[in-house]
Amino acid sequence: MIPPLSLHGVRKSFGGKEVLRGIDAGISAGEIFAIVGPSGVGKTTTLRLLDLLDAPDSGEIRFHGASVSVGSPAALDQRRRMAMIMQNPSTFRATVFENVAYGLWLRGVDPREIRVRVFQALAFVGLLEAAGQRADRLSGGEQQRIAFARAAVLRPEVLFLDEFTANLDPGNVRLLEQAVLRHRREAGSTIVIVTHNLFQARRLADRVGVLLEGRLAEVGPARDIFEASQTPEVRAFLSGEMAY
Ligand SMILES: Nc1ncnc2c1ncn2[C@@H]1O[C@H](COP(=O)(O)OP(=O)(O)OP(=O)(O)O)[C@@H](O)[C@H]1O
Ligand SMILES: [Mg+2]
To answer: What is the predicted pLDDT for the residue at 204?
Structure first.
């Protein structure tokens, strides 16, 4: 089967520094794929390429097997089928309801349907009661829950989560992880997560890709990577022995 998203020999440099040095991977429909690796290795960069926000210097991103040219009308259309929660998401100075409804308004969804979907998404993340409150005045954990609801409400075909539970307490982490699993069950989205939390990758991911020095050093089922990695560098990274 052709994967919904794939990377083929993808390279990306910033200011003469080659961050990604040839990435090949396919993300399967409906899977949760985690990208892990040390800080600064290019995880967010990879996610931005997959989300068609940025173009590779060479190599290709394919969406359902077709090479994507970032910025083309086809790519804009494909981007509407994706949603991303950025590392450090921010909320607008508006109510929680308006923050979550915004993407649906942009897409011209019927107002009655917007209400139903927004309240459903807020219930998912335990924020029904906060619908009328100013989003930017809520706590960091609540704002990250809003960010998740804002992406999930679009029912994207592909959902990207970049450190979506960073700096949260265990209760909020658990709530959001359950929301991810429930979202996958109910909306059937393909989900790519980037996380520093190796336990989280293990709890959520079907497959894991370990990014080291610009390449995917190993890709495989989460259990194989965490329990039986075949690559010494990956084992060193996972056990915290490798100092980056
Ligand atoms: N727009 C940009 N301009 C210049 N350099 C960039 C840009 N985006 C990323 N970089 C550089 O590319 C490298 C990889 O960045 P990236 O944000 O992808 O890392 P990361 O793996 O997500 O790190 P972290 O775990 O800290 O979030 C870094 O050295 C970063 O400074
Ligand atoms: Mg990052």
So the answer is: 97
Beta strands in the chain, from DSSP E residues, in sequence order:
5-14, 17-27, 32-36, 58-63, 66-67, 82-85, 158-162, 190-194, 207-212, 215-221
Tokens at 154, concatenated: 């679009």
Residue 159, φ and ψ in degrees, nearest 5: -120, 130
**Mapping DSSP to helix (H, G, I), strand (E, B) and coil, where does residue 107 land?**
coil
Would you list the domain boundaries of the chain? 5-238
**Could you tell me the pTM of the whole model?**
0.95
DSSP state of 68: P
Ligand nearest the Cα atom of residue 214: 1
Closest atom of ligand 1 relative to the 15 alpha carbon:
4
Question: Model confidence over 58-88: pLDDT tens digits?
Answer: 999 999 999 999 989 999 999 999 999 988 8
- Report residue 49 as tokens: 């390429």
**Residue 165 CB–ligand 1 contact under 6 Å:** no
For residue 111, report the distance from its CA to the centre of ligand 2, in Å: 35
Q: Is the CB–ligand 1 distance for residue 14 below 6 Å?
A: yes
CATH of 5-238, one of 3.40.50.300, 3.30.460.80, 3.40.50.720, 3.10.310.10: 3.40.50.300
Q: Is the CB of 214 under 6 A from ligand 1?
A: no
Query: pLDDT value at position 90?
Result: 85
Contacts of 147 (CB under 8 A, 6+ apart): 85, 86, 89, 91, 164
Q: Percent of the chain, pLDDT > 70?
A: 99
With 80 as the cut, is the pLDDT of residue 242 above it? Answer: no
